[in-house]
Amino acid sequence: MPGIGFNASVAMIESVHTLPLVILLMGIGLTLAILIKTLLAKISIPALIGYLTLGFLLKLADVEWNFLSTEATEIFEFLAELGIISLLFRVGLESDLLGLIRQLPKACGIFIGNVLISGCFGFVTAYFFLKIALIPSLFIATAFTATSVGVSVSIWREKNAIRTANGEILLDVAELDDIASVILMSLLFAVAPSLHNGWTISLFSTILLTSKIFFLKSIFFGALCLLFSRYVERNLTKFFSKIEKPPDPMLEVVGVGFIIAALAGLLGFSVAIGAFFAGLLFSRDPEAVKMDASFGALYELFTPFFFIGIGLNIDPRALNTGLAIGSILLIAAVFGKLIGAGIPAFFATGWTGATLIGFSMIPRAEISMIVMQRGLILGDWAVPPDVFAAMVFISATTSIIVPIVLHSLLGKLLLQEE
Questions:
Q1: Which of 4, 180, 193 is nearest to 95 (CA)?
Q2: Residue 10: its pLDDT value, please?
Q3: Cα(212)–Cα(261) distance, integer angstroms
Q4: pLDDT digits over 359-373, tens only?
Q5: 254-46-139-317 Cα dihedral, nearest 10 degrees
Q6: Does the predicted TM-score (pTM) go above 0.85?
């Protein structure tokens, strides 16, 4: 019994020392994140590159000095979870659902080709060429379908081209990509455990059987969201705006978003997916979108920790293999989007639009990293460390190189059009 008391005392002392260390690391991390964002913005490099690097450097320091306890790691994981929720809530909030529906006929062909071909490029390269197992190959394929529109849009805005016909099509296709990737991610999370358990029936039968429960839950959750959007959301937003002064109304909206995200989690979906649909629900109301500026501070506070958490999850021992895998997958990632988006875009916009839209769809960042990070949580059977490192390499490389190429392309091709 004395031994138990001594162990409890040691654990309590360790916890007391852990909290100040975590707060110190949070403070340093947040301060550096803001500085990194400002510095990288000057050279048109996405801030997420700096956040990933910061997290990986923290990982290397922990490998060397072993200063991150289990409790500290759990706190960083919780902050990363808040970062995912904030990130996808904003993606949903900034989606123009009605505008997407109006543009669907024009953007749909590009979107379908883009998702199918880029996903197939990822799966075929991973499963047949690199001999990666089935489930990790499916995660790679799903991550390949997504597009980080924010990386490219900043260059289009700088060139005053975002409100052109090609710019609007790019936004529509990219938003459809993100929505499709989130849905595919939900389906993959539902199917992956059944595949991992070694079912002997065919892949198609497994997907069909598992999908039945998933779609029943989706219908139930979708019905709740539809009822909320139709009969509650607008009145609730007006009520918050009436009784409170900014930024409190937006914080109330975020609170409701967290409730919806938690409900999605209780139903067996990811809370991140719930956050996306929560943002989508409020996006139909211009009043809610107008309040989005009040959400900016929360977004900037938590989102860096998601990417820092990704850097922390990179296993240095898997880096060499990950870079080798990533270099091959990078080729598939580039050509999957160039062909998948470029060819359909050619028939809708001509060579100029096809080239610009194809290159603009190449970056993989937020949604792709969410797919891989959620897979990593499931275990090595879903996303092994070297595959995770490979996708981080692809995300970083495409997010750095594409803005440089696109900056030059936009300047040349827009001048030709004039």
A1: 180
A2: 40
A3: 22
A4: 999 988 778 888 998
A5: -120
A6: no
Residue-level pLDDT at 389 = 94
Question: Which 8-state DSSP code applies to residue 313?
Answer: T
Find where tokens 């059009």 sit.
Answer: 417
Q: Measure the CA dihedral 341/343/349/352, to 10°.
A: 90
Contact criterion met (CB below 8 Å) for 188 and 207: no
Residue type, 296: G
Q: At CB < 8 A and 24+ separation, what contacts does 339-344 make?
A: 339/117, 339/121, 340/113, 340/114, 340/115, 340/116, 340/117, 340/118, 340/121, 341/110, 341/113, 341/114, 341/118, 341/173, 343/113, 344/109, 344/110, 344/112, 344/113, 344/114
Q: How far apart are the two ends of the chain, measured CA to CA in Å?
A: 84
Q: Are 334 and 402 in contact (CB under 8 A)?
A: no
How far apart, in whole angstroms, are the C-alpha atoms of residue 344 and residue 19? 53
Q: How far apart are CA 305 and CA 122, in angstroms?
A: 28
| Residue 120 tokens, joined | 């197939």
Are the C-beta atoms of residues 234 and 226 closer than 8 Å to each other? Answer: no
pLDDT, averaged in runs of 10, over the chain (418 residues):
47 56 86 90 82 92 86 86 85 69 72 91 96 95 85 74 77 76 82 73 62 75 83 85 80 87 80 81 69 75 89 89 95 95 88 89 86 91 94 90 83 61
Q: Which two tokens stand for residue 13?
A: 């002392």
For residue 282, report the phi and psi dihedrals to the nearest 5 degrees.
Answer: -80, -15
The pLDDT value given to residue 13: 41
